[in-house]
């Protein structure tokens, strides 16, 4: 059968939007957004609530606790304050520092380097716990804690991109005698307010810090522009574009071979042998 005879049929099918009796269930599910508290309309790479795991990228699972959106990163829970899709940025803060500077479990902030990275507004606070007395004179950035029924003295010092270390040389030997230390990211812009008012430390930490995500985003842009929904194939561990009829690797554009096969399967095309 001549391919020239098929050209009008291919042109007709390609020129019109495909109509399917039943849309793919995964395609429909991934049209749902994650909505919780101040976060609305969150799509790929996030999953959670009405968005099954296959609608997001591993490591971006969200949960909604009493209308507070949260994300777990490297085993630690963070409150999610905002998502900016244009810059692929999320703003988070540690939930264990919501009310005070004295969490029961002391742990550093660990990120998934392949998924999340800091932006230009990145600063850092180092908190020191169980520091001995007496305290060096002239240093006001101190706090007291009662952790597991143990009273202890603490300090905090700050680091930002423009000033590698704000720790006075006289304090370095003293801080090494503290029992524990924890590093917590903050916005670099918040460090200025902390310097002027050490009591503003907790508020600055609760403002959160920004992280830039990386999760096959160029592939997702291509998928969405073709009318698909972005997702992840947990079997092949690869990006998947969920289309109305079936999942595809990258986008929902059908090849001529796909169109001919569909016409043949529907009985609209026969081949003379």
From TrEMBL:
Main localization of the protein described in the UniProt heading: membrane
Signal peptide span: 1-21
Organism: Salix koriyanagi
Record's bilayer topology term: Single-pass membrane protein
Protein known as: non-specific serine/threonine protein kinase
Gene Ontology cellular component list: membrane
Record domain Wall-associated receptor kinase galacturonan-binding: where: 30-94
Keyword terms: Glycoprotein, Signal
Reactions that this protein is recorded to catalyse: L-threonyl-[protein] + ATP = O-phospho-L-threonyl-[protein] + ADP + H(+); L-seryl-[protein] + ATP = O-phospho-L-seryl-[protein] + ADP + H(+)
Keyword Glycoprotein assigned: yes
Molecular-function GO term, any one: protein serine/threonine kinase activity
Domain Wall-associated receptor kinase C-terminal per the UniProt entry, residue ranges: 166-246
One Pfam family per UniProt: WAK_assoc
Top-level EC class: transferase
The enzyme's E.C. designation: 2.7.11.1
Locations listed in the record: Membrane
PANTHER family, alphabetized: OS01G0690200 PROTEIN, WALL-ASSOCIATED RECEPTOR KINASE CARBOXY-TERMINAL PROTEIN
């Amino acid at each position: 059968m001549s391919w020239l005879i098929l050209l009008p049929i291919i042109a007709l099918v390609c020129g019109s939007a495909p109509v399917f009796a039943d849309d793919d269930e995964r395609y429909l599910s991934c049209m749902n957004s994650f909505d919780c508290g101040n976060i609305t309309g969150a799509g790929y790479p996030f999953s959670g609530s009405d968005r099954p795991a296959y609608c997001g990228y591993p490591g971006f699972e969200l949960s909604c606790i009493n209308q507070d959106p949260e994300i777990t990163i490297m085993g630690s829970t963070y409150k999610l304050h905002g998502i900016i899709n244009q810059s692929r940025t999320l703003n988070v803060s540690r939930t264990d520092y919501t009310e005070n500077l004295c969490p029961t479990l002391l742990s550093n902030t660990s990120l998934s380097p392949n998924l999340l990275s800091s932006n230009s507004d990145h600063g850092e606070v180092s908190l020191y716990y169980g520091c001995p007395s007496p305290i060096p004179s002239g240093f006001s950035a101190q706090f007291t804690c009662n952790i597991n029924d143990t009273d202890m003295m603490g300090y905090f010092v700050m680091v930002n991109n423009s000033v590698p270390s704000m720790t006075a040389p006289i304090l370095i030997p003293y801080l090494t005698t503290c029992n524990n230390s924890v590093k917590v990211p903050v916005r670099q812009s918040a460090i200025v307010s902390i310097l002027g008012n050490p009591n503003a430390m907790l508020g600055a930490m609760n403002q959160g810090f920004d992280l830039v995500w990386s999760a096959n985003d160029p592939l997702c842009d291509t998928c969405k522009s073709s009318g698909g929904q972005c997702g992840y194939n947990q079997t092949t561990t690869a990006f998947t574009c969920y289309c109305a009829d079936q999942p595809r690797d990258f986008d929902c554009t059908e090849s001529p071979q796909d169109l001919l096969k569909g016409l043949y399967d529907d009985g609209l095309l026969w081949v003379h042998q």
